[in-house]
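WARN no homologs supplied; continuing
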Amino acid sequence: TFISLEVREEDYAEGNAFDIHAQVRGENDGYVGFCGGCVIFISLGDARREDSPLMKALMKLDPETAHNVSVYAASCSYRTREFLGLVESDVRRMQIEDMLGVEFCGMTMKNCIGLAAGYDKNAQAMQGMLDMGFGFVEAGTVTPLPQPGNPKPRVFRLPEQKCVINRYGFNSEGHKAFEERFKTEAEYKRLFQPGRIIGINIGKNKTQTDAVSDYVKGVELLGQYADYLVVNVSSPNTPGLRDLQNEKQLRELLTAVMKARDALPRRSPIDYVEQKKQRKERWVWTWKHQLGLPLHEEEPLLDLAKVKRPDMPPLFVKIAPDVNKENLESIAQVVKETKVDGIVISNTTIRRDFGFEHKNLKEKGGLSGPVLREMSNEVISDFYRLTEGKIPIIGVGGVSTGKDALDKIKAGASVVQLYTGLIYGGPARVSNIKSELVALLTEQNYSHVSEAVGANHKN
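OK structure emitted
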């Protein structure tokens, strides 16, 4: 598709060129640029859809190669990502996010749909994934020292069930490489992008016998860059890691990491309104946009005067869906005692008894996808009940639709994350989930997503 529209000189002077740019692109996917006084739109078709040529090509690659290619694409310049259909249009975002913006643990999120840890393991594509439409992105899991993870092949698709089995084993470039990327990322976001939340998921090295020290190192070094931190004790692919969910070990670990978190320097508040006043004129931003230079523009619907940022990063613990009732009770008790800010439920499962057969089902590792949905929802609901809804929950596991997201929210999650759903649904899945969620909330007479949190427990 090729469209050319004339842009008058006064449109540039009055700052209207950007508005024309947005109107032309609308909900379409492709490249929009200014050339010779015209707006040029070149479309790749529905590049964001799961049945697009781009997605079909990725699915022909082996799973880990496809993962690496997608991370690379999401880490490219803004213009390249927009051309590939990896950027959600402002028009679409403005249409559907009014009901989904949340205040969560002191953080202002533009919407309640996030990217789970495991996709951007080395903090390479954070801005790219936020531009795709996520309200928050969780980078990692990152370990103190670089480690290769488990031998390949270590990722397996189950396409008929839209599931994945992985046994990556915390493959990580380590704290130092992670920190270098975050130094640039954190300063960019701190100054120019309120409401775009980035968390860091921390783990331990495979050969480390003193697990607590590895997690404390992660908090001490990376806590200053994170909007929030997650202590991952739930991956099934690192020997002995899930033992840290046992009451005694979990209490020792969370006590230590909370002490390290509380010792971090307090952050000073940011006056986003004053920052906006100091920026250059809008038309200057527009030509920078066309050249692929860094974009310094706040979210269209964000009230900058109300944007919140806690003076230290909230700390969460991520648990497995395979915990039994007794174990979950002890986890809830420890979380309350140690005053951890919240919990992430859940990681992948080691179960295989879901009533279907597949050649890859025999592979060791964590299983994710729709089969995990009800397991995760049950643990979320039980934890919400055990803590009387006083501990914030990030719900993960089997989210592919707006209904999946709403089910988790009604079970007790304040915000939700996905990863496997993105693999099979492509970039459009993020926008689709948000649109479906808004439609369901409206249909069920909710004026805002926060009203639905824990609804199953209020009847």
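The radius of gyration is 22 Å.
OK
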